Amino acid sequence: MNKIDKTYNLLERISTLFRSEIRLAGIQHGLHPVHIEVLSYLSRCNRLSNTPASVSEYLGVTKGTISQSISLLESKELLEKVADEKDRRVVHLNLTDKGKQLIENSMPPTSFRSPLEKFSEDEVDNLHRLLDTLLNGIQKCNKRAGFSHCKTCVFNSPKSPSEFYCELTKEELPWEDGYLICREHAMCK
Ligand code: SF4
């Protein structure tokens, strides 16, 4: 078996197991997998990226499916719609405390957390580097850029150990925000 087939087999098996965990997490709360995926994404994205269109684009599902999912999650008080302060036509989706709690208790699943906790810091760093490179390569190939973190973004201009400047939004942001998913992310050359 060549290196590509072997890697593909491993990633495919991991993603199958992960989807199964998402399904089980949803069943406990009367939710479908897509509902858990919406909540999980919203718990990890920045405020440029928490619109219904961004959720639809990130998950690769239709706007109709996302709209239905948002209505259901709203009715279960897991998220709320908030109009943008500058442009009232734009809607942001914020998790409620109940929604945050549900995701915190479910994701990442214990079956993923436990083996990763056994890795050393160096092993995890190496794994992240390789997975980052693989993800960037896949995004370049299928021309679906965006939805990554500030650290590899061309608009990221470090200011201090605690802050960076986003050249796109013209805002100074805390480094913690740099670990959130951003739909406007543009890859450094
Ligand atoms: S630096 Fe890039 S990834 Fe970070 S907020 Fe700005 S556009 Fe988004």
Automatic annotation (TrEMBL):
Keyword RNA-binding belongs to the record: no
Source organism superkingdom: Bacteria
The UniProt record lists the keyword Transcription: yes
PROSITE patterns: HTH_MARR_1, HTH_MARR_2
UniProt main location, coarse: cytoplasm
Cellular compartments annotated: Cytoplasm
Keywords from the UniProt entry: DNA-binding, Transcription, Transcription regulation
Signal peptide: none
Boundaries of every HTH marR-type domain copy: 4-136
Protein name: MarR family winged helix-turn-helix transcriptional regulator
